[in-house]
Structures are given as C-alpha cells and as structure tokens.
Amino acid sequence: MAAITTWIAHVFLSVLFSLAYLSVIRGRLDQDYRDQLLSSAQKDKDWLVSIRRQIHENPELCFQEHNTSALIRQQLDQIGIPYSYPIAGTGIVAQIGSGSKPVVALRADMDALPLQELVEWEHKSKIDGKMHACGHDAHTTMLLGAAKLLNQRKDRLKGTARLLFQPAEEGGAGASHMIREGALGDAEAIFGMHIDNGSPTGSITLVPGPVLAATCFFEAKIEGVGGHAAGPHSTVDPIVAASFAILALQQLTSREADPLHSQVLSVTLIRGGSAFNTIPPYVEFGGTLRSLTTDGLHKLQQRLKEVIKGQAAVHRCNASIDMKEEEFPPYPAVFNDDSLHQHVQKVGRLLLGPENVKVGKKVMAGEDFSFYQELIPGFMLSIGIRNEGVGSIHPPHSPYFFIDEDALPIGAALYTALAELYLNENEHSILHQIF
Ligand SMILES: [Zn+2]
Ligand SMILES: [Zn+2]
User: What residues have a C-beta under 5 A from ligand 1, the ion?
Assistant: First the structure.
C-alpha cells in the first residue's frame, strides 16, 4: 500500500516538474520571440520614420491616394513582395506566406483629411487644406513595416497573410469597395488598429464586442410658403415647422431608445431665410445619427423620417429627407470578435507586457473596418501614441494632431505578431484539412 502511495506521489511530482519545465521553456521561447521581433522592428525605425514623413508631407483625400499608393508599391517592389493593384482605385493587397490556408488579413487606411495643419515642424503637410490628422499615415507605415518583417519570416509562416492598404476610410467607405473587388480573398479573420492619443506609446487598449458606432448623415428640407413677416397668416412658415421638428427629434434618443443602448442624434446645420422681415419658402437642416448597433441605426433612420414628415405636416409644410447615402455611405457598427479578443490580448501581453494591455473605451465615432467584420470575424485595437515630451497629446481630427513616431516600430511588430501567431494557432484547424 505504502509502495503504491509512493509511486503515485512520484508520478504526480514528475508530472508537476515536467509542466513547470515546459512552462519555463515556453516562457523562454516567448521572450526570444518578443526580443527578436521587437529588435528587428527597431532596426527599421529610420526607414519607417522616413516613409511616414513622406506620406505626412503629401496628404491625399478619399480615393485620391495615388502618390501614397505609388510609394507603398515602390517599397513592396524593393522588398520583393507580390501584390495586387489597383483595388478600389488606389488600394493594394500584398500577400506573404505559403499561399495556402489559413489566411489572415491585416488592414491599414491611407487617406487624409480636408484640414489645415497648424503644427509648425520640419515635415508639416505641404498641401494647403489637407492633413494627416487621423494617423492614417502611421497606420500605412506600420503595415508596410509589418510587410517587411513578415517577408523576413515568410518561410516560418504557417499559412498566408494578406495586407490590405485601403483608400477612403474618412467617409468614403473604402473598405466596402475593397471587399467588392475581392480584397479579402480567403481570409478568415482580420485585424486593424487605430492610433490613440489617450494611451501612452508602448501600450494598447482593447474592447471586446461593440466598440464604435454605426453612423450616417442626413439632410432635410421643409417647404412652406414664403411671404412678408408682417402677415404670417398668409404664409406657411417653414421656420416654425423646422424648429418643432428639430426639438421632436431629440425625443427619439431620450424617449424611444433603450437607455442601455447608446444612440446619438445631432442636428449640426440649419439654413433658412436671409432677411429680418421675410418668412422664407423653405428651411434645410441636417446632421448625424449614431448607434452602437447597426440595427439600432436602421430604426433611428426610419423614425427620423417619420418625425420630420409628421412635424412638417402638422405645420402645413412638406418635408423631404435625403440620407446622403451616395456621398456618405452609412457605416455599420464596429463589433470586435470575442475569440480574436483573446488572441489580441495574448499577443499584446507577450509583445508589450501585461501592464501595457488595458481595457479601452467605446466611442460613438464610426470606422469602415466594420464592413470587413460583416463578412469575417475581425478585431480593431487602439495603439497608444501619447507622449507629452514630443507634444503627442492632441486628439485625431485636430489641426494640432501630432504623432510620437516611436510608435511606428511597435505597430509594425504588433501587426506582424498578430498575423504570424494567428496562423500558428490556426494551422491545424479541422476545417482547413477538409477544404
Ligand atoms: Zn478620422
Ligand atoms: Zn482614422
């Protein structure tokens, strides 16, 4: 009996020691992986900074990213990475690895904003009225950096990485055009990142589930009958009708939406009349709708039309509503996949340390990354650029927006690890063996 007990204890201890030994080995492998990847990315820092500055000095708006796209293609040619072009006008899809499944996609956006840069520095935008104020110059550079790193490691890749350089994130729904032209290919998952001035360089923040809003714009026209302001009874006053309509709209979010389901309805412009003594024939107003669910946005759009038409009718006016879908396609909500959240968390902790991977905040801004997520699981993370020392403190879309370029090699390494480790983990999936 005593012998059996000793034997069990022996087996138990052996298993325990083996597990401990394996975990030490695993830890050492993890550390080697991190050190090697980060140091390779750091070696490319000067190149990354110079690419980012070239893009920053020459910002291009939605679907006009011709020079940016040419620069990326020239660099891919030099590195020796094959790609498809043009996709969605200026878009590029580069492919690295075995060419077989599993396939994982990484995405960066290339467009700038119609904004005058007010930062006085050596590499300020050379184009008046255009600026990379949302960090897309950094996203593009980080993904190009990842292309180089993945190419150095291509013989080890257990599948294929597809790198999507897309146009027109700022309102043009470039992602939906990329999809229509086959950019996703056989990709089964996609990762994207956005710079974040709220968290320090070297850190990332993650939000599982809904993180960014479904968004759209609208413009309404309320028509009455204009006339002299001294005789309102002989007019049909569209100013009063529009005022009632705008106030009634506020109740859609305060009275009709579930308080636990975030929604925004903002009227941001109004035009009507040009004289103190004349009631105008019509009034135009417009704004934006937002919801953390795509379904919530559809309901809000429907009710917006009903309320404006109803209020116009009460005041004897006619209303027409334009959802501006041609010019500004509605964006679905960004919804981060739960299992990819586990992956990003694990990779982030491995590469940056657990203390530098935090829970992020949901925001009612939109992002066309959501179009990819309608088709395959995707995850969009925020990468920190905050550094008071270099003035990297302003939010995106500010004319003072400024990036800490130390974040560039970190982003390149992170994109690389997200793809490489995803392929390692999904190599033996049963689905890939069957198809
Ligand atoms: Zn933006
Ligand atoms: Zn952006």
Answer: 134
pLDDT tens for each residue of 74-84: 999 999 999 99
Structure tokens belonging to residue 172: 């043009």
DSSP 67-95: HHHHHHHHHHHHHT--EEEEETTTEEEEE
Other CB atoms closer than 10 Å to residue 90's CB: what's the count?
26
Distance 342 CA to ligand 2 centre (A): 24
Domains of the chain and any CATH numbers: 27-212+333-427 (3.40.630.10), 214-322 (3.30.70.360)
Cα 395 to middle of ligand 1, angstroms = 10
The Cβ of residue 41 has, within 10 Å, a number of other Cβ atoms equal to 26
Question: Per-residue b/e over 415-435, b at no fewer than 16 CB within 10 Å?
Answer: bbbbbbbbbeebeeeeeeeee
Tell me the per-residue pLDDT of 318-376, one tens digit each, with 9 for 90 and over.
Answer: 999 999 999 999 999 999 999 999 999 999 999 999 999 999 999 999 999 999 999 99
- The answer to whether the CB of 83 falls within 8 A of the CB of 37 is no
